Amino acid sequence: SSGFKSGLFNALFSPGPNTAVKPEELTSYEVGLKSTFMDQRARLNLSGFYYDYKGVQYQSFTGSSSVILNAPKAEAYGGEAELALLLIDNLDLRAGLSYLHTEFTDTTLAPSYPPGPLGAGVGIIVDAKGNKLQRAPEYTLDLGATYKIATSYGEWAANVTYYYNDGFFWETDNRINQPSYELVNASLTWTSPDKAYDVRFWGKNVFGQHYTTAGVTGGGSVESFVAGAPATYGVTLGAHF
């Protein structure tokens, strides 16, 4: 298959080489398998893909605002596996594993802001050919389990999920990155016999893993990051009419 992302104009910039952004074009090759076995108690999905990009659009930070730029060519390939199991009644298990390789495959003149003598970013232009694309972890893994118990006074459901991210780079010059991290979420839900009400006790990032959700450099500023949510806990009440 093939497709494109429309071009655009960086409205905050005066006319110049960075004002107009060309369309991004993608040619995609994919193959996959969907299967069920063990008397419909197991489902396995497999997929592999190769993406050929032209005019890749990527985001960069100029110090006062962000700008969209083009890279001539890039490629991405990888695969995904998803497994769902119902080994015993009321216990659902699932697992997902993905691998992703990304690379700028042609000369890519990208802005970079390495630290200067006083620690402030000093703007230069580097060739990002061979670098990885932004926010593209090589490996991710997610696991989940849900166990349900039906009683005369309602249903209880316990759920635990685990997510692993191998880490990635925030910018095209591959200078600042998010290291690998793990997140664990858990919940316990009670649902009334008539399904009209439920109460969910939940915790997110229960082990308080430190990670970031954004990272930028540029314009003489030091590196800036946005922290991910810490461990949070709560109760949610639901009514269904």
Q: Could you report the average pLDDT, rounded to the nearest whole number?
A: 91
What class, by secondary structure content?
mainly beta
Fraction of residues in β-strands: over 45%
* SS element count, helices: 0
User: Biggest β-sheet, characterized?
Assistant: 10 strands, antiparallel
* Model regions low in confidence, pLDDT < 50 over at least 5 residues: none
Strand elements, count: 18
Measure the end-to-end span. Answer: 43 Å
Query: Shape, please?
Result: globular
Helix and strand string, N-terminal first? EEEEEEEEEEEEEEEEEE
Order of strands, main sheet, comes to: 1-4-5-6-7-10-11-14-15-18
Explain this structure to me?
This protein is mostly beta strands and about 240 residues long. The protein has no helices and 18 strands. A ten-stranded antiparallel sheet has the order 1-4-5-6-7-10-11-14-15-18, with no helix packed on it. Strands 2-3 form a two-stranded antiparallel ribbon. The two termini are about 45 Å apart.
